[in-house]
Specification:
4 helices; Thiol Ester Dehydrase, Chain A; 5 strands; alpha+beta; 25% helix; five-stranded antiparallel sheet
Length: 138
Amino acid sequence: MPSGFKFKVGDSDSVTMVITDEMVRAFAALSGDDNPVHLDDEFAGKTRFGKRIAHGMLLGALLSRVAGTKIPGPGTIVISQDIRYKEPCYIGDTVTAEIKILHVRADKPIIKISSRVTNQAGGVLIDGGAILYFESVS
């Protein structure tokens, strides 16, 4: 097991939050993605979604939040990530981003995880996984 690594296969953690209009607008400003499906009620109402949806990468960022702040925690860097969008996230949805450790390399601080974002109804919004590099800085 890599030095300083206190987690094991099967360990998981998550973060839950409400996706607000303010978050979507701030993400649009930060990313430059001002697609009206995210920002304009009238435009979004004419799409197959029927109303505004959050940016997919906003949800992906929540997975990074879990990895970098909870498990494995500070010092974690994403090496590669697989994100499959399954359902849209609407403004006002309560989402839970969860990661689970699937494999830890014995020779290097490299971790394989599964990742998932669900909504308040249990719908899967994102399903995927990632390879993480974990450096304990304690």
